[in-house]
Specification:
The chain is α/β, with parallel strands linked by helices. Strand 1, helix 3 and strand 2 form a beta-alpha-beta unit. Helix 7 packs across helix 9 and helix 7 crosses helix 10. The termini are far apart. About 4% of the residues have low confidence.
Length: 280
């Protein structure tokens, strides 16, 4: 008689069986294609408590078990000012999933809200990242891993064009400019959000959404609070009904930029024009 699996083992197993094609294989592809992990790395896997970062933690655990490349991990949770309910939810989910978290506290929510009461989200994200870098470096890490996924990349690209007047992507790895020797990596770069949602629902998991006072979200909701991003999500969903390959086409476009056809572009902060070809 086969041994009965623990709940966390069933969840782990679903990643490499039921969701092998849509989650595990794209994860491994991103790690290899973008050379995200090297031998000797110590990576702070950053957990916010949402579905994306909790899946990232499980993927990194699975990779650590099977990878021929030796690396270390710390599962880092920053409490930026969660209420008791959300803090408890994160701790319960970490225990359920057998993720050994390291928790530290900050006042990011209060500081961001006080500094920019009308739109603190951008500032909050920057402050959170700075605190994560600092704590990760203190713990001896050389990289932080974030749970941004393929849908984030696609939506950011479209948002930049429609709302920012620019073509701008989201890189799978970035060297830090403020913390020497540190790097940010995005191992879920090739995984679509809908597939993360399917994994979550299949395993009957309940994670927190954004938990700051500004968004007014408590636990159990995945509603996006940014109206521009929500509109872009809706637009892509509508276009996908007509062309199922829309998401992949947008994603591939930032891997296939034809600079020779652009009137102007920036590189390393310096603007270049097609007119340079006509100058003596």
């Amino acid at each position: 008689m086969p041994k009965q699996l623990e709940r966390y083992q069933e969840i782990e197993r679903s990643i490499i069986t039921t969701y092998r094609k849509t989650i595990w294989s794209p994860f491994v592809l991103a790690v290899k294609k973008y050379r995200l992990i090297q031998a000797g790395d110590k990576i702070a896997v950053c957990i916010s408590g949402g579905k994306d970062s909790m899946l990232l933690a499980k993927l990194m655990q699975e990779l650590h078990r099977h990878s021929e490349v030796p690396f270390e991990m710390v599962f880092l949770v920053m409490d930026p000012g969660y209420n008791a309910e959300n803090r408890k939810k994160i701790e319960e989910n970490a225990a359920l999933l057998q993720v050994p978290i390291t928790v530290f506290e900050s006042d990011v929510f209060a500081s961001a809200d006080a500094a920019n009461a009308e739109s603190p989200c951008y500032l909050c994200a920057r402050m959170r990242r700075g605190h994560l870098y600092a704590k990760a470096k203190e713990l001896g890490c050389n990289k932080i891993a974030l749970g941004h996924h393929k849908s984030d990349v696609i939506e950011t690209t479209v948002m930049g064009m429609l709302y920012g007047g620019q073509i701008q992507g989201m890189l799978p790895r970035i060297p830090s400019t403020n913390f020497e020797g540190m790097e940010l990596i995005r191992p879920m770069y090739c995984i679509l959000e809908n597939d993360i949602l399917r994994w979550k629902e299949y395993n009957k998991l309940d994670f927190i959404a954004c938990a700051c006072s500004f968004t007014k979200n408590l636990t159990g909701s995945d509603e996006d609070t940014f109206s521009a991003r929500r509109k872009v999500k809706e637009l892509i969903a509508k276009l996908k009904k007509e062309n199922d390959n829309v998401e992949n086409n947008i994603f591939q476009s930032i891997h296939n930029v034809q600079l020779d056809t652009l009137a102007e572009f920036k590189q390393n902060g310096i603007k270049h024009s097609f007119l340079e070809k006509f100058e003596d």
